[in-house]
Amino acid sequence: MKTLEQYCNDQPLSPDEVVSAEGNELSPAEQAFLTNYLGIASPTQDLARRIPSVTPEQVMSGGAPLPPPREEPAPPASEIPAAPSSPEATPPRQDASQAQKILREQDILQLIGFRLANQEYALPIDVIQEVIRAVEATKLPSAPAFLAGVINLRGKVTPLVSLRTLLELPPDEDKFVVVCRHAGLQLGLQIQAVSMMHRVGQNRIDWGVESLLGIQNNFITGLIRTENQRLISILSLHHIVQTLLKT
Q1: For 7-22, what is each residue's pLDDT tens digit?
Q2: Residue 87 contacts by C-beta under 8 Å, 6 or more apart in sequence?
Q3: What whole-number distance in Å separates Cα of residue 116 and Cα of residue 19?
Q4: Is the pTM of this model over 0.90?
């Protein structure tokens, strides 16, 4: 099993999509997020000017070069004002079973592992754009507890999700952010620490999570059984995004 450093030296990650700071088009998921939480429907750049730009330290980078941070005038306040009310946007429809089907059809899965509250989790490598050190987020008015805020990451408004809150784990300091992209939305998942790269066959993955755990957890799509019988939970980025957009 390779460490993250070894893996990155041998084979850089392939990001799902590198978002240009110059792009004006919003995906349906981005439109839904901005409308639901901020009551606006303007291009990402217009909102990014109201959020301080961050220049985080990269721990892992994608295979393609990322655009440089764009200089924007930052407001002194740490919160953006409440947005006027607007009709709730409808997030794009996605099929969770289809997302899992794609994973189950791969003979070998490559995943990035990380830790939270002394528990191990993983995400498929093809949804991860980069891993950065934690940065301060701009708070959103009336946001749910699991939404830590948003950051202006290379000109793209990026919501930060507290996995601890979402998974009901004990509070602690999270020092890293896994930047992912799914269904047209770039988001960051706050984590305690990155661990290592996992390359596992289907014979070591259990997809019947409910029967194994005794409970239904939509945020966990599968379990990896390691050689020493530890269990690593594969997170469902699909359900995380849908929860973010439907709240």
Answers
A1: 444 544 333 333 333 4
A2: 35
A3: 28
A4: no
- Residues 15, 157, 243, CA angle at the centre, nearest 5°? 80
Domain range summary for the chain, segments of one domain joined by +: 4-66+89-246
Answer yes or no: CATH 2.40.50.180 is held by domain 4-66+89-246: yes
Cβ proximity of 208 and 119 under 8 Å = no
How far is residue 173's CA from residue 187's CA, in Å, rounded to a whole number? 19
Please say whether the beta carbons of 51 and 154 come within 8 A. no
Q: Is the pLDDT of residue 235 over 80?
A: yes
Note the pLDDT tens digit of each residue in 88-143.
444 444 466 777 788 888 889 999 999 999 899 999 998 999 999 999 999 988 89
**Whole-angstrom distance, CA of residue 120 vs CA of residue 130:** 19
Taking the C-alpha atoms of residue 95 and residue 29, their distance in angstroms, rounded to an integer, is 14
